[in-house]
Amino acid sequence: MSILTQILEAFNSMLANKLRTSLTMLGIIIGVASVVSMLAIGTGAQASINSQINSIGSNLIYVSPGAENIKNPRPLTVDDANALADPVQAPSISAVAPIINGRLEVSHGGETTAVSVIGVTPTYESLQNIKLTEGEFINDNNLTTRASVAVLGYNTATKLFGSAENVTNEQINIGGQIFRVSGVMEKKGGSGFGSSDDRVIVPLSTAQIRLFSRKSTGEVDQIMVQARQADLATQAGDEITQILTLRHRTKYGEDDFSILKQQDLLAAVQSITGILTVFLGGIGGISLLVGGIGIMNIMLVSVSERTREIGLRKALGARRRDILTQFLLESATMSMAGGLIGVILAYGITRIIAAVAAATGNAFEPLIGWDAVALATIFSAFIGVFFGIYPANRAASMVPVEALRSE
Length: 407
Fold this sequence. Notes:
Blueprint: H1 3-16, H2 18-55, E1 60-65, E2 76-77, H3 78-84, E3 93-108, E4 111-120, H4 124-127, E5 132-135, H5 140-145, E6 149-152, H6 154-161, E7 171-174, E8 177-185, E9 199-203, H7 204-211, E10 219-220, E11 222-227, H8 233-248, E12 257-261, H9 262-305, H10 307-315, H11 320-359, H12 370-396, H13 400-405
Parallel strand pairs: 4-9, 6-8
Antiparallel strand pairs: 1-11, 1-12, 2-10, 3-4, 3-7, 3-11, 5-8, 6-9, 7-8
């Protein structure tokens, strides 16, 4: 008997018991749909987070005050930032931006919202890849004159004015101080690590004096540094350590500041989301195993019901391997069909998740990879064969005479 004939017989057997076949396949369908959709969610989450991190700039290094087990660390200052910007001392560094930030109430008319207010220098615009829909960013003149100007995030402008258009030169109140809107940032979207659309940017000098009272020390909360090239990030980190160690007069290995490279952040995120993806896929895999057990149970029932048929086939010359192959093919076919339907169902689930994410303002796109589809489909076929071996072997081992005598 040819393989094609046996496959056709497997389909005929499945169609003869449509309800039972459908219920048996349901376990595999749910299992495959779970595996594929959960892997898609994990992959999509990783891509979304990576995109958000990369959107804030490239080759970035974040220098923050304080370090583990260091008491009373010296704060970072504007002078520290100026030292890091010196091309003689730090040839691997292309740009430096000191930052002050805090959370303040911002209002206009009857609308009030609490957002992140950031004091920066003009360099911050290029380091963060900021694009404006209107107006202009903080400039050197604003910094020198300590101007009361502010650049609004897209969401902040929308909350205060009802729209992010034609708001330049309007006045807003930040922490009890009047500021003029000088520009509005392009919408970036996303909510991870604090949405960049919910913020207000002001000149660093203005923030020091009028908003956060740091005139006497020149203290800043963070220094953002950009390496000239990605492969110079490590060298730039060494230069930062050397300059700040000398300036802060700390001992070797007792730095009172912390350095975080963007590549390290990406690597950490990828590690976490990778573990999450494996975990989610494992949960779906359990569903597949449950479906496989269901197939084995149904195949055992099928063997019992078709005992006389098996005996007749053997009496007419069917070999042991013919019977074995027939029942294995039925099990594998049932499992493969369930796997294919599960992939289609998973695609529908991911579309629903993407639509819900878009409706709630969180741009998130689950990504179904061919590797996940192939893995789930092959694994479902393996489940069918594995759990079909015992029933098939039981059918193939029947003695024809005893099988024909059964009722």
